[in-house]
Amino acid sequence: MGRKWNNIKEKKASKDANTSRIYAKFGREIYVAAKQGEPDPESNRALKVVLERAKTYSVPKAIIDRAIEKAKGGSEENFDELRYEGFGPNGSMIIVDALTNNVNRTASDVRAAFGKNGGNMGVSGSVAYMFDSTAVFGIEGKTADEVLEILMEADIDARDIIEEDDAVIIYAEPDQFHAIQESFKEIGITDFTVAEITMLAQNEVTLDEQSQAQFEKLIDALEDLEDVQQVYHNVDLGE
């Protein structure tokens, strides 16, 4: 698969540690998920997915509770879910997911981030077809064979199971997210190094040193935007 999921998460968490930016993004995402359905993760699957991912980033309980309480309180603040697609250096592909209360501002900011950092926006569908929505889990303390056995007993057919550093990474269909979560919960495993539904590139590309430096600058600029929740791409950054 080419991705080093644990390393990617650690890099993002380290980058955001001093600004608490990641907590603000999670707060917004939790609020939106809770507002769109029941504010109870047991009956709101979208909220449950967000909370599981927040757990892997050690988002403080106070921030989670505040976002859910805001949704329960009937806040009138509304956010639109937007997806932008574009290209970076040497034809690299990028998907940007945003939550915004000002569509024009967000579109302008995303377009500017692409334009100022060697990229350009594409039309809807120009990039997304090269990515697959994928559930990804990271398990520690188990071998790949043990994880495969657990999933087989739960009648879950994963796309791929690989060993990465000290963890086993599971790739599966997004609709298997909750089944996988429950299969491990039944044997006492509730903590994951990775637990999310992501957009995974069908094929990764490698950039030369100069292009990669420019690409990373573009990704940083996009992730720095307040309204941007997730940035997906097809570049192997060698992590």
TrEMBL record:
Gene Ontology MF, one: DNA binding
Gene3D superfamilies recorded: 1.10.10.200, 3.30.70.980
TACO1/YebC-like second and third domain ranges (all copies): 80-235
Ranges for domain TACO1/YebC-like N-terminal: 3-74
Top-level taxon in the UniProt lineage: Bacteria
Protein's UniProt keywords contain Hydrolase: no
Principal location listed in the UniProt entry: cytoplasm
Protein location: Cytoplasm
InterPro entries: Integrase-like_N, TACO1_YebC-like_2nd/3rd_dom, TACO1_YebC_N, Transcrip_reg_TACO1-like, Transcrip_reg_TACO1-like_dom3, Transcrip_reg_TACO1_YeeN, YebC-like
Keywords, in A-Z order: Cytoplasm, DNA-binding, Transcription, Transcription regulation
Keyword Signal: no
Pfam (any one): Transcrip_reg
Family membership noted in the UniProt record: Belongs to the TACO1 family. YeeN subfamily.
Protein name according to UniProt: Probable transcriptional regulatory protein ACFPM4_01280
Organism: Lederbergia graminis
Lineage: Bacteria, Bacillati, Bacillota, Bacilli, Bacillales
